[in-house]
Design a protein that fits this description.
By secondary structure, the protein is of the alpha/beta class. It has nine helices and 17 strands. The protein has an eight-stranded mixed sheet with strand order 4-5-3-12-13-14-11-15. The chain is globular, with a radius of gyration of 20 Å. The mean pLDDT is 96. The structure holds flavin-adenine dinucleotide (FAD). The site of flavin-adenine dinucleotide has 43 residues, from helix 1, helix 2, strand 11, strand 15 and helix 9.
């Protein structure tokens, strides 16, 4: 089997390397920093798009496939590595009063469990919430994952089977007679028969030297983390694009912002204030709770959030799996399987056409 180079060690690169190595391929993964420390570390880990009915069917297809896969993936990772990615079925409570009919009809069409709750039932389910809409939407089967742990487990699972080269930045893709031959890093060259670019927000930077570049740009997201006691927030709660995620140990994440500020991965006092305000407005008891952390990450933003998964036109052996925008955790396992299917000429798990690099988005 030929040598495959995966560029980028976020969730997408790690999952892709795992898929390829499980199929018997010889894989090298190159990462400019440390694996799993960029967007995949910064994200919230909700295993559902936030308002799933608003997305293209191509995103729904990847999400539904991955949602079914996550329990198996996490069980396998726990067994192989001893690291628990903490997949928890927290359910998703959506407090926005609009779009209920549209949401429920989407759920019926895709056989997703979604209920409309009365205000009273909502208060029973989430007693600490101060916001009191007359009705809410409840998706009891939505999971969350602790994404830094997922990345650690994935890395540990492939260690020994995949050659992992960290702190090594790819600066050039090497092409001869319209065929990829490897990549040049600041430390030397790595030869390969096939290359998969999983470089998240940096993907377009890397591919633009070849001419056509996917429309991927960094979209900053900031989060804050409270150190609370377990039970203060019971479910993932969403209102007006902001959400709270309760971790098993009581920590509560509040996210997030959507900022187009290039590659500046900085936190700002304004965002901290705005996120804090949302948190306290929804759960006033958080006012007495210390903020433990505040961070930013760069999402790989793409038009309509549809990732680019497939062959790079005109260059044999070059592939892309990037641009997952706000949904890289929930669509990750399916994206990795699809990328591996295409690379290894297997029957693809879903129709690959919507994700092609030259597809209309
Ligand atoms: C605040 C926030 C909240 C989020 N919440 C959720 C959520 O709840 N659910 C969900 O599904 N998604 C969520 N996301 C989105 C999700 O985190 C991303 O879609 C996903 O992590 C993208 O994974 P990736 O591997 O493509 O990118 P990354 O994790 O950014 O990985 C790309 C990697 O490529 C490396 N790299 C780049 N260029 C090079 C190069 N030239 N050479 C070598 N290495 C290179 C980088 O160092 C990086 O490690 C959130 C994101 C943010 C920021």
């Amino acid at each position: 089997m030929s040598e495959i180079l995966v560029i980028g060690g976020g969730a997408i690169g790690l999952l892709t390397a795992r898929e390829l190595t499980q199929a018997g391929a010889r894989v090298t993964l190159v990462e400019m920093g440390e694996t799993g420390r960029e967007s995949s570390w910064a994200g919230g880990g909700i295993i559902s798009p936030l308002y799933p009915w608003r997305y293209a069917s191509s995103i729904t297809a990847l999400s539904l496939w991955s949602q079914r896969e996550y329990p198996h993936l996490c069980a396998a990772l726990r067994e192989e590595t001893g690291i628990d990615p903490e997949l928890v079925r927290s359910g998703l409570l959506i407090l926005d009063p609009e779009e209920h009919d549209q949401a429920l009809s989407w759920a019926r069409e895709h056989r997703v469990t979604m209920e409309r709750l009365s205000g009273d039932t909502l208060r029973e389910l989430e007693p600490g919430v101060a916001h009191k809409p007359s009705a809410a939407l409840w998706m009891p089967d939505v999971d969350q994952i602790r994404n830094p742990r997922l990345a650690k487990a994935l890395r540990s699972a492939i260690e020994g089977r995949v050659q992992i080269r960290e702190h090594e930045e790819v600066v050039e893709l090497l092409v001869e007679s319209e065929r990829i031959t490897g990549a040049r890093t600041h430390k030397g060259t790595i030869g390969a028969d096939a290359v998969v670019v999983c470089a998240g927000a940096w993907t377009a930077k890397l591919l633009e030297q070849l001419g056509a570049r996917p429309n991927i740009e960094p979209v900053r997201g900031q989060m804050i983390l409270f150190y609370a006691e377990p039970g203060l927030v019971r479910h993932v709660v969403l209102l007006r694009e902001r959400y709270l995620i309760p971790r098993k140990d009581g920590r509560i994440l509040i996210g997030s912002t959507l900022e187009h500020e290039g590659f500046a991965k900085i936190t700002t006092a304004e965002a901290k204030e705005a996120l804090y305000h949302t948190a306290v407005e929804l759960f006033p008891r958080l006012e007495q709770t210390p903020i433990e952390n505040h961070w930013a990450g760069l999402r790989p933003g793409s038009p309509s959030g549809i990732p680019y998964i497939g062959a790079y036109p005109g260059i044999q052996g070059l592939y892309c799996n990037a641009g997952h925008y706000r949904n890289g955790l929930v669509t990750g396992p399916a994206s990795a399987r699809l990328a591996a299917d295409l690379l290894l000429s297997r029957v693809p798990i879903v129709d690959p056409a919507p994700y092609a690099l030259d597809a209309q988005r």
